[in-house]
């Protein structure tokens, strides 16, 4: 194999394989798994959600990610789905949101849904 040759495995499929290995335990049925809130993939998904919420907001004050409070993930076909509870700041106000973010095999994120959490 030449340097950089992955034996027919593309970078994109390698990402999916890594995601499956990382978020699913061997031999178990796919489903939601708790993941560390400080995991880089979780942080990237949370940051994407904040940017997407900001774009949809008519507020002049930008949202700032304070903390990922809870994180779950599952792999569905060719993408990973994250369900997160995030704490955001907008101006002096702190708010919690439940967000659902997909990460596709090519590395792009998409915010599926979000709602303010009043707990």
From TrEMBL:
Keyword Secreted: yes
UniProt-annotated location(s): Secreted
Molecular function GO labels: cysteine-type endopeptidase inhibitor activity
Main location: secreted
Superkingdom per UniProt: Eukaryota
Protein's UniProt keywords contain Secreted: yes
InterPro entries: Cystatin_dom, Cystatin_sf
One Pfam family hit: Cystatin
Any single Gene Ontology cellular-component annotation: extracellular region
Alphabetical UniProt keywords: Disulfide bond, Protease inhibitor, Secreted, Thiol protease inhibitor
Segments forming domain Cystatin: 31-79
Classification via PANTHER family: CYSTATIN-M
Protein name: Cystatin domain-containing protein
């Amino acid at each position: 194999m030449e340097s950089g040759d992955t034996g027919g495995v593309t970078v994109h499929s390698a990402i999916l394989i890594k995601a499956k290995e990382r978020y699913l335990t061997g031999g178990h049925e796919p489903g939601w798994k708790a993941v560390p809130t400080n995991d880089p993939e979780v942080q990237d998904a949370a940051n994407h959600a904040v940017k997407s919420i900001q774009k949809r907001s008519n507020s002049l004050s930008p949202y700032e990610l304070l903390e990922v409070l809870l994180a779950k993930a599952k792999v569905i076909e060719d993408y990973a789905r994250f369900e997160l509870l995030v704490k955001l700041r907008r101006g002096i106000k702190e708010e919690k949101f439940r967000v659902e973010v997909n990460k596709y095999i090519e590395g792009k994120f998409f915010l599926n849904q979000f709602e303010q959490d009043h707990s």
